[in-house]
Amino acid sequence: MARAATTSDAFNAIAEPQRRDILVLLRGGERPVTELARDLGMTQPQASKHLRVLREVGLVKVREAGKQRLYGLDARGLRPIHEWVGGFERFWNESFDRLDDYVRELKQAGQEGPDHGDDEQ
Amino acid sequence: MARAATTSDAFNAIAEPQRRDILVLLRGGERPVTELARDLGMTQPQASKHLRVLREVGLVKVREAGKQRLYGLDARGLRPIHEWVGGFERFWNESFDRLDDYVRELKQAGQEGPDHGDDEQ
DNA sequence: TTGACGCATGCCGATATAGGCATACGATGA
DNA sequence: TCATCGTATGCCTATATCGGCATGCGTCAA
Predict the structure, then answer these.
(1) Which end of chain A has fewer CB within 10 Å, C or N?
(2) Which CATH number fits domain A10-73: 3.30.1360.120, 1.25.40.10, 3.30.420.40, 1.10.10.10?
(3) Residue B31 host element (H or E)
(4) From the Cβ of B12, is strand D under 7 Å away?
C-alpha cells in the first residue's frame, strides 16, 4: 500500500498546505480558478488539481458562471475534524507533568471504582 | 515532488487513521508498544513506525521503563490544528444558501461602502 | 552466558502524490 | 466559423508512504 488517498478524507485533503491556503482564501467568498492561482502564487493546473481534491472530499463547491467556474467554501466537512481534535482539548490545557499525574489518577480511579468516564472516538 | 512528509506537520501526521487511533487510545494513559499494537490490531513494527512519526512531530513522548517503552500523549501539537479548523466554524454553522448570501453581502458591502449591518450566527 | 522478550529498523514492493508542461474542451465574442 | 479566454486533464518524473518480513539491539531472568 501507499499513503491513503488525499481524497479519502478531509483529514488527508487538508494535510496539504496549499489546499489549506485555498480554503482560507475562499472564506472571503467565491473565486475563479485563475484568481486563486494568482493570489496563491501557483500555476493554474496546480490550482485546478488541488480544487479537484477539495471538491471530491466536499470541502468546496463549484458554480458555473459563463466561462468561469466559481469555487466556494463548504466548510461542513471540517466540522468532524474540529470535533475529533477537540477531543484532546483537556490534554493540551494541562501542563505536561501534571498531565502525567492526571493520567495516573485516572488509572487508579479506574481500578478502584466507578470511573470518570472518558474515552474512545 | 511527492506528498509532504508525514513528519512535516501534525496535519500530515494525523492524516493517517491508524495514527489517529493511537492518539485516541493514548488518551487513556501511557502504553507500551505491544499493547497498542494488540489493541489496534496491527503488527508491532507497524505500531512502532507510526509511533515514530507521532514522536517526530511531537504528538507523543516516550519513557523508558525497563524492557518496555511507554508512549504517552502530548496533545499540545494538536492545538494549532484545532485553531486553524476553528477559523471555519462560522461557515459550517450557516446553512449553505444563506452562506452564499452572506458572502455576496460581504462583497457588495466591500464595494459600496458602509454595510447593511447584520451578519453571521 | 544464554535465552526470551520488547521494540526499532532495514529492505522490498506497490501505489499515488505534487509539480511541470502541453493540450483538449466549453463558452464567449468577433 | 475562428480566435481566445478560463479550466480541466493527461503524461512523466521524483519521492515517500505503508505494509510485510526479517533482524538487530538492549533489558531482564535463569
Answers:
(1) N
(2) 1.10.10.10
(3) strand B31-32
(4) no
Residue B110: pLDDT band (50, 70, 90) is very low
Higher pLDDT, B48 or B103: B48
Instruction: Classify A73 as helix, strand or coil.
Output: strand
User: Closest nucleotide to residue A35 (Cα to C1')?
Assistant: D6
So what's the pLDDT on residue A30?
96
B79 phi-psi bin (left φ>0, alpha ψ -120 to 50, beta other): alpha
Rg (CA), chain B: 21
Is A73 within 8 Å of A26 (Cβ atoms)?
yes
Q: Express each pLDDT in A70-92 by its tens digit.
A: 999 999 999 999 999 999 999 99
